[in-house]
Amino acid sequence: MIDDRRTLLKWLITGAGIAALDAVAGPSTKIAHTKTFNVVVVGGGFAGATFARTLKRLMPNTAITLIEEYPEYFSGPLSAEYLVGKRSEETLTFDYTKLISEGINVVHERALTIDSAKRVVETEQSTYRYDRCIVAAGISFDFEYIKGYSKALADVFPHAWKGKEQLSNLKNQLDEMPNGGTVLMSSPNTEYRCPPGPYERVSQIAEYLKAHKPNSKIIFLDSKERFPKQAQFELAWKQLYGYGTAKSIITWIGAQQGGTVTELRADTRELVCQAGIFKGDVINIIPRQKADLFTDANGLTGDNGWCPVNTQTFESLKIPNVHVIGDAADAHSLPKSAFAATCQARVCALAVYSLFNKLPPMTPEYMNVCFSLCATHYAISVTVSYRQNPQTNKIDVISTNITPLDAPKTQYISEVQSAYAMFNSMVIGAFG
Ligand SMILES: Cc1cc2nc3c(=O)[nH]c(=O)nc-3n(C[C@H](O)[C@H](O)[C@H](O)COP(=O)(O)OP(=O)(O)OC[C@H]3O[C@@H](n4cnc5c(N)ncnc54)[C@H](O)[C@@H]3O)c2cc1C
């Protein structure tokens, strides 16, 4: 049994397709139960959907209810291509038909409260009883730390970091911007969803401007001194967008150069930072982030705004029998990415399986693979493997593999195809 679970764990962290589970989780792994367990999952994004499908494969008799507010899910990964008109909305939109066909009870309601004494999750319409509750409700934003910015103003100056409406809004603004216009971007220095995402977005916008509005430019005012895959991104920008020359489409101003934005002047469309006052035709502010509002309202978040968990099982350190997975979890040093979220979901499914079956917990390993599309035929990547450290409850980095700076041109091209393949496999694992 234990050996089966070890093999299973290895398969799960690499994100092997869900069908592969049947091969590895053979008859000896599936235990026949007299009791039917109830599991409630809050949030049907990459983490929640992957968890529900994985546990259903491991324990078909478990009654799983997935509470997801919306009938359709819109993907963050590859959304930069949608933003610049290279990808249709349909290719990023997924529903829950497959989950329902597999026997998962999907209800489109907003979860409001967890009553941990009664072990129920309440929505406006109903009450759902659980033996284990899995919360995978994503992120929320902190707008007010930039003077003059607010939730209401996010309609005018979109973050485009969550939800289809925000992305469509930014896309329309880019479409309507005249040739010769300036795009301003800013991003936070605290933990946020998809650490290299802003730099992929800059790259995609630069490619769009080069092709469609060649007199335009993009200025990135950054609150960070350094950013992920910086050397690789800067090399790509030099090769593709004249970065570092007077004609560069991209200007990056980091925190050390005074790029931290402190104020938005909405009426004059200006961002203020130490490096100066910058006027933008399109202004994209990616605000500071924290765990979603549901976890916050239910006492699952810690002082840093994220949800402390036991990194072996993802059980909350605040409320027993409740697990938090995905971006909302404080799972240092895993990044907040869809890949890591699906990896956590699988590890958590195996942990819940072990708990239900009274099996000893395992020391999980994790993985994150992150591709960044710098242009239509140019992508870079980083692959990191991790192991849970039972002493510190941290998730330690074991090895890192990044696109080398002297990679042949063919590698940048093939990494684009790998990025699409990885996206497809994450989507198949989560939504079928
Ligand atoms: C621009 C951009 C690019 C990205 N690119 C990549 C990439 O290339 N690779 C990668 O791995 N990651 C990428 N990411 C990150 C990835 O999108 C997130 O890490 C991932 O979506 C996290 O999954 P999650 O399930 O935790 O949260 P989410 O995907 O946000 O899902 C949360 C779900 O919970 C639901 N929900 C929230 N509250 C409630 C409630 N009270 N009741 C019911 N339902 C609720 C929401 O409707 C939502 O469907 C990118 C993100 C962005 C913004």
Automatic annotation (TrEMBL):
Pfam family, one: FCSD-flav_bind
Annotated Gene3D superfamilies: FAD/NAD(P)-binding domain, Flavocytochrome c sulphide dehydrogenase, flavin-binding domain
Signal sequence segment: none
The keyword Flavoprotein is annotated on this UniProt entry: yes
Keyword Membrane carried by entry: no
Residues in Flavocytochrome c sulphide dehydrogenase flavin-binding domain copies: 363-427
Sulfide dehydrogenase [flavocytochrome c] flavoprotein chain central domain segment(s): 170-287
PANTHER family: FAD-DEPENDENT PYRIDINE NUCLEOTIDE-DISULPHIDE OXIDOREDUCTASE, PTHR43755
Protein name per its UniProtKB record: Cytochrome C
Organism the protein comes from: Pseudomonas palleroniana
